[in-house]
Amino acid sequence: MPVASRKKSILVMESGSFKTFGGAVKDSHRLYVYLKSLGRYTVDFFADFSKFGEHYPISLDELYKTHYDLIIINSMRDVLLLKKYMPKNALTKTIYVDRGDIVYHYFMLHGSRMISHFAGIFPMSANRSDSMSKSIIKQTNSIVLKRARDFFSKGYGMYLFREMHKWLTCYIAINAEQEQRARKFFAHKTMVKYIPIAPHEEFTKLHIKKDFEGGIFIGRLEETQKRVSLLILGIKEVVRMHPELRGRELLRIYGTGPDEGYYKQLVKELTLEDSISFCGFALESRLLNAYNNAGFFVSSSYWEGLSRVFLEAMACGLPVLANTKNNRMIDYKKRKYLVRENQNGMVFEYGNMHDFAKKFYRLYSDKKLAERLGNNAQKLISKELNIKKMLASYKALISGLLS
After folding, report:
1. Which residues of the chain have pLDDT under 50?
2. pLDDT for position 130
3. Nearest residue to 27 (alpha-carbon basis) of 76, 85, 77, 98
4. Which of 21, 279, 317, 354 could bond to 378 as cystine, CB 3.0-4.6 Å?
């Protein structure tokens, strides 16, 4: 009788789950579940979902002792852990999904070579890196020091990015601009694929009666990337331009983070307590209702890879008020952006509070416009950025790599 061939083995790594349970972590878990359902492969998951009642038994020691045919990594923390693994497993193929947009930072930060060289001289373990970051956060509320910490962190990430270059099989870009930068960086030495992320199936439009027609923000409350202070200043400008709105709730903020206290103090100082509500952390079931109960989504982030909350909001039928720095292309050749002015949302000039206020007011005051843009946003997600297409792309890629 013929001997049955061994199933190829896959490991999905998500070290980020040891710290938080965000959208990227859920993506990794969704891919893990999907690959297991195919029945073609032996699939393991290196993650920590114990606080959510799920347990995955692969320990760090077991990881270093086990050979996998393919490892899918999702963060620089994963790369740090694999620095010890890859020299002994040269035949292992690897996929890196760049949800953190490290290739963007590589090209944008011109001083990165010096910092990443410094990081290479003093390599850190994942635990040491985390403990240093937490120590700095606890010791100060200084925005300057937080940005310095972020700059060093990105520099160290770039050092790991170059280390990964030595053994990476395939780089996954989640937006079209990433794909173009990655092709320049890897110069045909590594396969580059463009697979945009997609909202999970549960995010959809609900036909419920809304009690709030204003803007909603969902995300981490920190200033380095999210720049929530600009949203607060933008609402101040909205009220200044339209004093009849004073006292009305205009913005709901969902999330927690290191700068939450700073933002609440800023709202108090600007006497915007009636205009801006802080709603705390919310799991998906509550977020679904939060999206569907709002008029539109707003963001002031300094950068985004391809913002998951944009996609979730659009899937729920909301238009997005994005800015010129966080609105990513989904088709490079056609210069097609995710959010298109007066088609499925609006785009304001980053840092321009007058422009923000003008477009915020249009979405708030013109319900028919907001509904039309929201319907177009939902159609875009349904047609082009749905999870079935995303998983099918991974299936085809992995099948080719392991054939």
Report:
1. 1, 3, 110-141
2. 42
3. 98
4. 317
| SS3 of residue 110 by DSSP | coil
**Total domain count for the chain?**
2
Q: What is the pLDDT of residue 270?
A: 97
Question: What tokens appear for 341 in the block?
Answer: 């002015």
3-state secondary structure string, 28-97? HHHHHHHHHHHCCCEEEEECCCHHHCCCCCCCHHHHHHCCCCEEEECCHHHHHHHHHHHHHCCCCEEEEE
Residue 275 and residue 192 share a domain: no
Alpha carbon 342 to chain centroid distance? 25
Residue 133 in domain: yes
SS3 assignment, position 145: helix
What per-residue confidence (pLDDT) applies to 349? Answer: 97
Residues 6+ apart with CB under 8 A from 366: none
Question: Is 384 within 8 Å of 315 (Cβ atoms)?
Answer: no
Residues spanned by the domain of 306: 215-384
- Which string of b and e fits 115-152 if b means at least 16 CB within 10 Å? bbeebeeeeeebeebeeebeeeeeeeeeeeebeebbbb
Position 101, amino acid: D
Q: Residue 30: inside a domain, yes or no?
A: yes
Which tens digits make up the pLDDT trace of 263-310? 999 999 999 999 999 999 887 778 999 999 999 999 999 999 999 999
Q: How far apart are CA 344 and CA 338, in angstroms?
A: 9
| 308 within 8 A of 199, measured Cβ to Cβ | yes
pLDDT in tens, 21-79: 566 788 888 999 999 999 999 999 988 766 556 666 677 888 899 999 999 998 888 88
Provide the residue type at 221 as one letter.
L
CATH number at residue 339: 3.40.50.2000
Distances (CA, A) of 369 to 298, 316, 319, 375, 376: 16, 16, 9, 10, 11
In single-letter form, the type of residue at position 342 comes to: N
CB neighbour class for 3 (10 Å; exposed up to 12, middle 13-18, buried from 19): exposed
List, in sequence order, every residue forming a beta bridge with 70; answer none if it has no partner.
10, 93
pTM, full prediction:
0.86
The residue count for the chain: 403
- DSSP strand pairing (170-173 vs 320-323): unpaired
